[in-house]
Design brief:
This protein is α/β, with parallel strands linked by helices. Helices cover about 50% and strands about 15% of the residues. It contains 13 helices and eleven strands. Strands 1, 2, 3, 4, 5, 6, 7, 8, 9, 10 and 11 form an eleven-stranded mixed sheet that branches. β3 and β4 form a beta hairpin. Bound molecules: pseudouridine-5'-monophosphate and manganese (II) ion (MN).
Length: about 300
């Protein structure tokens, strides 16, 4: 496809069969304030490289689907106040208008699959929002998970979402969820959502993914990893803050694409930045685990 633009690092990794981990860019443009977003993007890449794995941050720039960004491109996404939050159905409009597009989990999965990148690390998946009965707000991340063969490593769904409805939705559309060395479904800012998940280890996961490859079954596997214990937020505190942020979003009539960035920003302010520190910690941890598994998967 002539829209694809691979960095030389990613290109040579694909050629030589070196393990690669894809990364999204909405987390850079809409998930964190500048300059922490750029610092985090660089750190995430270096955590992956430390494992001998190649990071491939994905974004749409000037009519190209970029797989693997250089420092200038990461800076561009980090500083831009106009980068378009690009979900899968937005890709054609962003490409054809040559805008800067930051890819969500949905769009990143699609590009990763196109590029035959089997692993993708992110912070939290989009999901079913509270009040879905009235708003019908369900992230396009979910239906896309049913279509793209990528193993997505996350800390669960953001706790601003209705976690149990999201898990139920994934069950309905046929997306398997496994807990990495845990049977507790995590809750993003905290380790335990109260839901259980099937526990898996590295060897069994790799075996299962390879079996899926042999079967030609195309759906994502959601691997959930809890935030490191030392960095989790106080559950009572964070839940109260999330409630306040949700009420505010409702009062202000925030809808559509703006909901998630609005909530993340309010939570950042209400926690005095603690949510950002927690988000950074879980993102780095997810990147490391994705890289470790990608390495194992790449072994013959
Ligand atoms: N998780 C984060 N920060 C984020 C997101 C997830 O910690 O910024 C982004 C992801 O890119 C995800 C998107 O795909 O939010 C979901 O947005 P929506 O609910 O509008 O589909
Ligand atoms: Mn939405």
């Amino acid at each position: 496809m002539n829209y694809m633009k691979y960095s030389s690092e990613v290109k040579s990794a694909i050629k030589s069969g070196k393990p690669i981990v894809a990364l999204e860019s909405t987390i850079i443009s809409h998930g964190f304030p500048y300059p922490q977003n750029v610092e985090l993007a660089q750190k995430v890449e270096s955590v992956i490289r430390k494992q001998g794995v190649v990071p491939a941050t994905i974004a749409l720039i000037n009519g190209n689907i970029c797989v693997g960004l250089n420092d200038t491109e990461i800076e561009l996404l980090g500083q831009s106040t106009t980068a378009f939050k690009t979900s899968i159905h937005d890709i054609p409009r962003v490409l054809s208008s040559k805008k800067v597009g930051a890819t969500t989990v949905a769009a990143t999965m699609y590009v990763a699959e196109l590029s035959e990148i089997r692993f993708f690390a992110t912070g939290g998946l989009g999901g079913v929002h509270y009040g879905v009965n009235e708003t019908f707000d369900i992230s396009a991340d979910l239906p896309t998970l049913a279509k793209c063969k990528v193993c997505v490593v996350s800390a669960g769904v953001k706790s601003i979402l209705d976690v149990s409805k999201t898990v139920e939705y994934l069950e309905t559309i046929g997306v398997p969820i496994y807990g990495y060395e845990t049977d507790k479904y995590p809750n993003f800012y905290t380790q335990d959502s109260g839901l259980t998940v099937e526990k898996i280890d590295k060897a069994s996961l790799v075996k299962l993914l390879k079996t899926q490859d042999n079967m030609n079954l195309n759906y994502a596997t959601s691997l959930v990893v809890p935030i490191p214990k030392k960095d989790e937020l106080n559950p009572t505190l964070i839940n109260k803050i999330i409630d306040d942020a949700l009420n505010e979003a409702k009062e202000k009539n925030i809808t559509g694409k703006k909901v998630t960035p609005f909530l993340l920003d309010r939570i950042r302010k209400l926690t005095n930045g603690k949510s950002v520190a927690a988000n950074i910690s879980l993102m780095l941890n997810n990147a490391k685990i994705a890289a470790i598994i990608a390495k194992e998967y790449a072994k013959k």
